[in-house]
Amino acid sequence: MLAADNLASYGSLARFKDIKRLHPVGPTTILGASGDMADYQQVQRMLENLMTSETILDDGHSLSSSQIYEYLSNVMYSKRSKHDPYWNAFLVGGLENGEPFLSYVDLLGTTYSAPSLATGYGNHLAQPLLRRALEKLGPDGHKSLEEDDARKVIQDAMKVLFYRDARSLNKFQIATVTVRGVEISEPMSAPTEWAFAEGLRGYGNSDEKI
Question: pTM of the entire structure?
Answer without folding.
Answer: 0.88
